[in-house]
Design goal:
5-stranded mixed beta barrel, 3-stranded antiparallel beta sheet, OB fold (Dihydrolipoamide Acetyltransferase, E2P), alpha+beta, 2 domains, about 250 residues
Length: about 250
């Protein structure tokens, strides 16, 4: 069986190997070993998990802990327990050496720390996405939707925060991005090769795009059809950030 390739996630110019990638590589290398998780605390405000990697004799060889607060972001509002367990596993595997980017922290931890550094608290409620049955009308040409330039007729303003590079089981590359579409937070999926590069070059940043809304696992997402830069829109901010105060 071919060894799985590391899956790298970019957050504002810094690369991190996602936890699922670390687990897949560990399982491939050591199918006889185990990853055990234990919930240390599961309260109304926070969750604490411990993950232990064991050798073939069931002896611990690496341990990782994680703590998540239920009001810290959209993910934790519904899935703090799952997110905390995943983070603990990622840290344990990182300690064991399963991280090609040399960062024990998970991508979610880094994203949260960077956002707090930028004074954008995750506890602030985000607008609920519109249901697919009530798709918002395209912004009129010239409205800009808050951008500096014009949004062409039939296009929507898509404001990208970060993206994940993935590929299907058949090897087709795609991007999942966290973004706002006409001001509403939702996942954006990008499949076309030309648009993949546009998103990479303008994330974080703004684009005018066509596409369609879809319902997926109870949530609304936007499948991007065609994207283009906005005339006179602000240049994407890709400058290096100060990570000296990230506590891990």
């Amino acid at each position: 069986m071919t060894a799985p390739k590391p899956i790298i996630q970019n957050i504002k110019g810094k690369d991190y190997e996602v936890v699922a990638s670390r687990v897949a590589r560990f399982r491939h290398d050591h199918p006889e070993r185990a990853i055990l998780t234990e919930c240390i605390h599961n309260g109304e405000e926070r969750v604490v998990y411990k993950a232990t990697v064991c050798d073939e004799n069931h002896l611990p060889i690496a341990v990782g802990h994680a703590e998540e607060y239920r009001n810290a972001g959209m993910i934790n509002k519904t899935s703090a327990t799952e997110n905390c367990e995943t983070s603990a596993i990622g840290r344990a595997l990182g300690i064991l050496g399963y991280d090609v980017c040399n960062s024990i922290a998970s991508a979610d931890e880094v994203e949260r720390a960077i956002s707090q550094q930028d004074s954008r608290p995750f506890s602030s409620p985000a607008p609920a996405p519109a249901a697919p049955s009530h798709t918002p009308a395209p912004p009129p040409a010239g409205s800009g939707g808050g951008a500096a330039g014009d949004i062409p007729a039939g296009h929507r303003l898509v404001e990208f925060r970060k993206y994940f590079e993935n590929e299907t089981s058949k090897g087709k590359p795609y991007i999942k991005a966290y973004a706002k579409v006409d001001g509403e937070d939702m996942d954006v999926y990008v499949w076309d090769a030309h648009n993949l590069q546009i998103v990479k070059d303008n994330c974080p940043g703004q684009l005018a795009a066509t596409g369609e809304y879809e319902e997926f696992r109870g949530k609304t997402r936007f499948k991007l059809g065609n994207a283009q830069t906005i005339e006179e829109a602000p240049a994407p901010q890709k400058g290096a950030f100060d990570d000296s105060d990230i506590p891990f």
